[in-house]
Amino acid sequence: MVSSQNRVFHQPVMAAEVAQFLVADPEGAFLDLTAGGGGHLKALVPRLGSQARLYGLDKDPEAVTRAARALEGAVQLRKIVKAAFGDLVDTVGQFEDKSFSGVLLDLGLSSYQLEDPSRGFSFQQDGPLDMRFDPSIGLSAADLIASLDERSLARLIREYGEERQAARIAKAIVRERRRKVIGTTGRLVEIILSVIKSPHRTKALARVFQAIRIAVNRELDELQRVLPEALEVLSPGGRLAVIAYHSLEDRIVKRFLQQEARGRCICPPGLPVCTCGSHPTIRIITRKVVKPQPDEIRRNPRARSARLRLAEKL
User: Fold this and answer.
1) Is 27:220 a contact under the CB 8 Å cutoff?
2) Residues 233 and 105 in one domain
């Protein structure tokens, strides 16, 4: 059992900004697609009336438990369920509300996940090389790096981790796995550090672990799938908030919002006016990306890479 002195407390990133922008209708229904520790939903409560409704979902069963515990006593809480946000439309079918005044998507890891060695997300602690948000399904990180050929592994690290030394790292992993199964985070760290020199070691570790985690959980595929579904379940005038933590995620979110704000025009290039009937579906609220304030970064250094974008459904 973890003592109260050592217990990890998750700090929701930009909770004040999310609550400020997301709650346009204090009596509306709100859905957190990445409930985590329940911190963002809890931050909405002071701005909500008693008739508001709160819902959440998360792929991680432990996060569902933590979020429900954090919101005990909130009269607005309706339901928090275990589900992947890529299955949003099907999941909403089990809720009392089918459309929402606000939808939030926080793409970051929680402190609980990072600091639990048994989950294998962090290169700073030794533990099983897992990295699955839902440990009951899919390939683990150990399974993934054991099955990919060297070229595929290098491409994964290069594209998802944006790591320049991807080829060298992949070659070292393949060489070492022939000798012994790579089953722990500590062993993977040793292999990466064997080919990366200072001062680039910490960044290389972070990039490789990020790349493998993204691949294990199919994060970018799920993100591309959920964004149009999130708009589908928003009520007219409802707001979508997305917090991204690296350029791959943020680029997908930015391009999607820009496209929806312009309208999905399919007219041939060169036509003087649009004739396909396309029209904008959203209004972008944050023309410039919102970043954490310096005092939040001091309290929670993990927030430093967060980028918040918001839009309102027309």
Assistant:
1) no
2) yes
pLDDT score at 6 = 40
Output phi, psi for 139, to 5 deg. Answer: -80, 140
Backbone angles phi, psi at 171, to 5 degrees: -60, -40
Do both 276 and 262 map to the same domain? yes
Check: CB of residue 33 under 8 Å from CB of residue 103: yes
Q: Specify which residues 54 forms β-bridges with.
A: 30, 77
Tell me what the mean pLDDT of segment 207-223 comes to: 97
Q: CATH number of the domain at 248, please.
A: 3.40.50.150
Please check whether residues 22 and 105 belong to one and the same domain.
yes
Per-residue pLDDT tens for 254-272?
999 999 999 877 777 777 7
Query: What residues contact 273, with CB distance under 8 A and at least 6 apart?
Result: none
Residue 302: exposure state from Cβ atoms within 10 A (0-12, 13-18, ≥19): middle
Number of domains the chain contains: 2
In angstroms, the CA 124 to CA 242 distance is 27
Q: Is residue 175 part of a domain?
A: yes
Tell me the pLDDT tens digit for each residue of 80-117: 999 999 889 999 999 999 999 999 999 998 888 899 99
- List pLDDT tens digits, range 275-302: 777 889 999 999 899 999 999 999 999 8
Burial, 99: exposed, middle or buried (Cβ in 10 Å; 0-12, 13-18, 19+)?
middle
Distance of CA 295 to the CA centre of its chain: 23
